[in-house]
Write a structure and sequence with these properties.
With 121 residues, the chain is an all-alpha fold. It is built from five helices and no strands. It is globular. The termini are far apart.
Amino acid sequence: MRKTNIISLIAACILLSSGLLHAEPSSNTPNDKEELCKAASYFASVTFEGYQNGEKKKDYLEIVDEMTDIPSSKKDYFKKLVNEVFSKPLYSSKEEKSDAVQKINKDIYADCMKKESSAPK
């Protein structure tokens, strides 16, 4: 993995393991849902940037596996995000990559909020 993306991924992992430890998916607290979705969209963006730069899916899946303080339900969700991101097309220009990263960020956040809002309480 490239050094700059490793730093971003470490930041994503810290974000995941900090405030999200005690927030269960589909909790009743809107702030918990928002934090989970922010973390998911950031993680997906960082993963997508790495994918666009030639990094391997297995590296990202291993990082999720190594996060021992994350509940398994969240690990499964973030593994799903890795698989989803790596199914996207590769782009050649910096502009296309940048646009795609922004779209991934917005789409994952919106999908997550929709899913969390409609989940049984």
